[in-house]
């Protein structure tokens, strides 16, 4: 509405978002190439806003926390900071080294896509995502597929993290970047030398124009007694009166007003952090702790249900596999039984034929014997006839002997076939008994399978458990939660060490693909700082 003040518009935005940690945020607009923030106690249209309609304001974080994990209470606050910091890194307003860019990208993917699933997140699923600064992509001779492979390798390790946890991990890494949360302004000292003034949650910092990573001088908020400006001249008075007053000039009066706004806001938050929390913040933190504990218990319950369901499915699959195995065994036993029956029938038929052949041979032998007797009785008396007769007798005797041997052999073969028939019938009996056993096992397995398969449908209910849960957490619950938090701290320290090793490994791995001629000034400065072992916090401490 026309009469609305800045606070009315700001409160409406915060209510719409459900945001309670309003002190970090503001409504930003641009006027004559200079950034400005909407004043809460001044009418919106009384500001020097652009005249064209619609008037555009950007809802952004104006002040940054020193420690995101400790200070950002609401999930919506964390999410808004995550979106803003991520955009600043991708737009290269915050310098981020290549290996850290890959790690941050993996947390951004976890926040958006949830747990990695190779069946869903197939090669090329990140092709349309903007995850790395263009400076990092241009610095190496690497294809998009190679970058995706390295991002996905870390993404797979973040399994089990919810969206808010992944976003918080992103912020915890980003807050240690040198340019995180710093507002830079071009200034000149009394000698006219051009410098940069940086304002952030820790204090005021003076930089060389070519080096936004490492400050030359720092003034922590607790060591500043007074900040003031007159026209374009700005004065910083240290708490220690022995230290000289630092004066500098800015290009515009509007810039001086903005610097003073940021100084006052950051100083107020710096002092507030070192005092006991207000009642509102205490209430918010208590609610956040309860909500976190509730979500953790819910995640544990879902994890248990998932585990039980997976175990039930594994058991069902095992029983189905066993059932199929038993069916195969039964089929094989049936086939063996049929083969045994066929063999027994063949042996019986062969034994009968052999027995008949033996009878026939015995009959022929008897006939031969009778013929021999007849020949002897009617033998011709001549020598020639006698000789022929003797030869015939000899042949008849040999034939009779052969037939007797053949008859005996056939008789033995018949006995052997009878014995084989007995063994075949015994095998048939054993096969029938085994088939009966397998049939009884199969029926038992089917009953077990039907009862097990029914398990998953009952799993999600857990009515008794859910009815007994209460949102009034007892001391024992909070003690248990405290123990879990301590355990998480230890695990985090170990993981940080592991993380640093992984970052160094990735840096070493891609170093060979780097195009040295494409390194920016900030890349070179960062490498120099890294080789000296310098970090954001120890550098500020050293130059304070």
Automatic annotation (TrEMBL):
One of its GO terms (molecular function) is actin binding. Keywords: Cell membrane, Coiled coil, Membrane. The gene is Nf2_1. Residues 410-429 are annotated as: Disordered. The keyword Cell membrane applies. Residues 1-274 form the FERM domain. This is MERL protein. It comes from the Eukaryota. Residues 482-523 form a coiled coil. A 1,2-diacyl-sn-glycero-3-phospho-(1D-myo-inositol) binds at residues 39-42, 257. It is a peripheral membrane protein. It is found in: Cell membrane. InterPro entries: Band_41_domain (IPR019749), ERM (IPR011174), ERM_C_dom (IPR011259), ERM_FERM_C (IPR041789), ERM_helical (IPR046810), Ez/rad/moesin-like (IPR000798), FERM/acyl-CoA-bd_prot_sf (IPR014352), FERM_2 (IPR035963). It holds the Pfam family FERM_N. PROSITE patterns: FERM_1, FERM_2, FERM_3. GO terms for cellular component: plasma membrane.
């Amino acid at each position: 509405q026309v009469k609305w003040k800045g606070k009315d518009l700001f409160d409406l935005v915060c209510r719409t978002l459900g945001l309670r940690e309003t002190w970090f945020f503001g409504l930003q607009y641009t006027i004559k190439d200079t950034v400005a923030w909407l004043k809460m106690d001044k009418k919106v249209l009384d500001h020097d806003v652009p005249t064209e309609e619609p008037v555009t304001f950007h809802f952004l974080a104006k002040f940054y926390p020193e420690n995101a994990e400790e200070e950002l209470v609401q999930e919506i606050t964390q999410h808004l900071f995550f979106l803003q910091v991520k955009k600043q890194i991708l737009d290269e307003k915050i310098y981020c080294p290549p290996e850290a860019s890959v790690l941050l990208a993996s947390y951004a993917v976890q926040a958006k896509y949830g747990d990695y699933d190779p069946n869903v997140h197939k090669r090329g699923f990140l092709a349309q995502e903007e995850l790395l600064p263009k400076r990092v992509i241009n610095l190496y001779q690497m294809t998009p597929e190679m970058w995706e492979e390295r991002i996905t390798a870390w993404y797979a390790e973040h399994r089990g993290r919810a969206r808010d946890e992944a976003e918080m991990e992103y912020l915890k890494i980003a807050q240690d970047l040198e340019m995180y949360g710093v507002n830079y302004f071009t200034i000149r000292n009394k000698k006219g030398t051009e410098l940069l003034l940086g304002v952030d949650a820790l204090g005021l910092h003076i930089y060389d124009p070519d080096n936004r990573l490492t400050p030359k001088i720092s003034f922590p908020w607790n060591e500043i007694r007074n900040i003031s400006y007159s026209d374009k001249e700005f004065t910083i008075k240290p708490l220690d009166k022995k230290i000289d007053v630092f004066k500098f000039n800015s290009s515009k009066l509007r810039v001086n007003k903005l610097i003073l706004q940021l100084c006052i806001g950051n100083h107020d938050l710096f002092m507030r952090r070192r005092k006991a929390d207000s009642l509102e913040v205490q209430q918010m933190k208590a609610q956040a702790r309860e909500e976190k504990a509730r979500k953790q218990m819910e995640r544990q319950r879902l994890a248990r249900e998932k585990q039980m369901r997976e175990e039930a499915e594994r058991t069902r699959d095992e029983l189905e596999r066993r059932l199929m195995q038993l069916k195969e065994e039964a089929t094989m036993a049936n086939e063996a039984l049929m083969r045994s029956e066929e063999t027994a029938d063949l042996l019986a038929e062969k034994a009968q034929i052999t027995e008949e052949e033996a009878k026939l041979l015995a009959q022929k032998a008897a006939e031969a014997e009778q013929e021999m007797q007849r020949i002897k009785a009617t033998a011709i008396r001549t020598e020639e006839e006698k000789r022929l007769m003797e030869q015939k007798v000899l042949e008849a005797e040999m034939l009779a002997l052969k037939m007797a041997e053949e008859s005996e052999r056939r008789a033995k073969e018949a006995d052997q076939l009878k014995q084989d028939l007995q063994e075949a019938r015994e095998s048939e009996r054993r096969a029938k008994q085994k088939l009966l056993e397998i049939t009884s096992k199969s029926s038992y397995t089917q009953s077990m399978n039907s009862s097990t398969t029914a398990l998953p449908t009952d799993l999600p209910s857990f009515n008794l458990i859910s009815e007994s849960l209460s949102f009034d957490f007892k001391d024992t619950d909070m003690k248990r939660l405290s123990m879990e938090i301590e355990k998480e701290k230890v695990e985090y320290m170990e993981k940080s060490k592991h993380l640093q090793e992984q970052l160094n490994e990735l840096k070493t791995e891609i170093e060979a693909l780097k195009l040295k001629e494409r390194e920016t000034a900030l890349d070179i400065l960062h490498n120099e700082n890294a080789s000296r072992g310098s970090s954001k916090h120890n550098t500020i401490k050293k130059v304070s």
